[in-house]
Structures are given as C-alpha cells and as structure tokens.
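Figure 3 (text version): structure tokens given as input.
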C-alpha cells in the first residue's frame, strides 16, 4: 500500500481518502464553509485552493480536471462562475481554518474551514466602489436629463415645422422628410437636389436614394425643375 505524501491517511485506502476529500470539497464550495476535524481540513485546504486556481483560469481543460473530483455539475458551475470570479484579483490564500476546540466524545480537534472574502483593495472592488459612489447623485442627473429631453421635445417640432415651411415655399406640392427619414403621408416620390432628379417607387434606384424633398405627383416634381431618373440615360 502506498505511503501518504503528507499526514496520516484518511479512511481505509487511497481511493477512500480521495472520495472523502472530494466530498469535503463539494460541501465547501456549495456552502462556503464546513466544520470538520483538523486533520481533514489540513488535507482539504491545498486541494480546494488548487481547484479555485483552475476555476480562475476558466478554460475547458481546467473544468474537466475539476470534474474528475467534483461530480456535482451545479457545484462546478458555481465554482467557475461565482467563486472563480470572486478571487480573480487575489493571488492565493482563498481559504482559512479557524479552530473550534475539541469534539465531545473522542476529543478530536475541530476546526471550521471557509472561503475568505475577496480583497477589499482589489481592482474589481475599487471599480465597483467607484460605480456605487456616484449612485447618490443619480436622481439629480436623471432629473436634469429629463428636463433636457423635455426641452428638446419642445424645440424639435418647431424646428421640423420651420424646415417643412421652407421646403413647401420652395417647391409647390412638396414636403420635407420626416424626423425618422420616412415619407410624409401622401408623398412617395423622392427628390434629390444635388442631381435635380426624382425617383418614383418603380425606379431601380428608389431604395438607394436618400430623399431630400418629397413630391406628391410627378407633375409637381417636374414643375419644380426635377428630371425623372433614367430619362436622360434612355435618350
């Protein structure tokens, strides 16, 4: 029978010892802390910290190595998604052992092994604190943003109306594009002032053309000095 690497063997055989430590590690990651004997806690601590180190890596190979010892998939998920991220900025020392005194009956020394809290001065903790600090000013900023939005809503219709009046005064039977770029109701002919051409819905360039002015009829577009797209090319 092989000799244990450190301390006395737990259980009756190496396989039994491996199973005991696996169950202890599963309970530790599931509950965050467990109460056990000092001998078991000292053997469990390096195993648990090694698994947390693998969880910090987060790759598939590390996950497979951990699942050789921990068969509960839900515990493995918690280890890699929560515990690993909690200690992402901690270089080591993820667990601690607290002495509790002797156990009644056999007088075995009992301890509590638990996961330590994340470092308060870790970069992620500082970022979180920085995000929480301005939270007190959020209501004031929110109110200011709402006031600004209301002001923009009041000014926007006036600006749109001014553009509409300018376009209608320039071209009879025309309308300016709406705020979202869609066609005004009753106007489906696109006019482009740069090329002075207009496009009807059956034009092959209709969808690619950005309307700078909309017309309700072809006659209105022609009267405004626009030429139907494609007529010059056909001639």
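Below: residues designed for each position.
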């Amino acid at each position: 029978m092989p000799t244990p690497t450190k301390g006395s063997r737990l259980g009756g055989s190496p396989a039994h010892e491996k199973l005991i430590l696996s169950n202890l590690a599963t309970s530790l990651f599931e509950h965050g802390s467990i109460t056990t004997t000092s001998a078991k806690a000292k053997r469990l601590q390096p195993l648990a910290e090694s698994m947390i180190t693998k969880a910090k890596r987060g790759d598939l190979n590390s996950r497979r190595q951990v699942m050789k010892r921990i068969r509960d998939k839900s515990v493995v998920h918690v280890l890699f998604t929560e515990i690993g991220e909690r200690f992402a900025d901690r270089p080591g020392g993820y667990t601690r052992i607290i002495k509790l005194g002797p156990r009644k009956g056999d007088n075995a020394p009992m301890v509590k092994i638990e996961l330590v809290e994340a470092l308060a001065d870790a970069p992620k903790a500082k970022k979180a604190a920085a995000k929480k600090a301005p939270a007190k000013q959020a209501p004031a900023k929110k109110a200011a943003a709402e006031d600004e939005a209301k002001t923009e809503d009041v000014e926007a219709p006036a600006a749109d109306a001014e553009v509409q009046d300018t376009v209608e005064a320039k071209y009879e039977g025309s309308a300016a594009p709406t705020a979202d770029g869609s066609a005004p109701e009753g106007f489906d002919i696109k006019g482009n002032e740069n090329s002075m051409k207009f496009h009807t819905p059956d034009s092959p360039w209709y969808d690619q053309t950005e309307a700078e002015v909309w017309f309700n009829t072809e006659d209105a577009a022609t009267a405004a000095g626009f030429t139907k797209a494609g007529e010059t090319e056909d001639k």
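The CA atoms of residues 136 and 142 lie 11 Å apart.
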